[in-house]
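Risk register update: the risk of archive-format incompatibility is retired. Evidence:
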Amino acid sequence: MEIKRLEAAVEAVLFTMGESVELEKIANAIEQDKETTRKLVRNMMLKYDAEDRGIRILELDNSFQLCTKPELYEYLIRVAKQPKRYVLTDILLETLSIIAYKQPVTKIEIEKIRGVKSDHAVNKLVEYNLVKEVGRLDAPGRPLLFGTTEEFLRRFRVQSLDDLPAFDTEKLEDFKEEAMDEVQLRLDI
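Archived output:
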């Protein structure tokens, strides 16, 4: 294998692993002996420094790690401080609405209402810090209960759950009738 290809392979391994990788593992990955691999990686370290790149390779007790140069941390901090933008799809909004109005609620209850599995949606809402685990139901299997967070209140600009819009009971009955009609149509087919 040519040197550029070996360097690219080492770079890919170190980048993907994100933490230090033992010399022996790198050598096995690129199918070279340990001394050849050590020379190759050390040569890469010199190249990175000479080219004044934003990354460098550290040697740590017979292991190597790809990392950012410390003098460039300020740029990383600027990006890390930027607020994250989350996209709330219709599925996420539907799931969030169920949790907001029915909390505390289990995934099984959410799935009964939605009619489909909701693991992914609930997990995304937890990741976005809009929903959290609030306890366990005192029932067989002790399923998790979910509720909304303070971040939910902030994002939707409400002071408390009491400030959420009230259900229009007439519309709710219309939705129930439509759903029942749709179920009946499916059964007739």
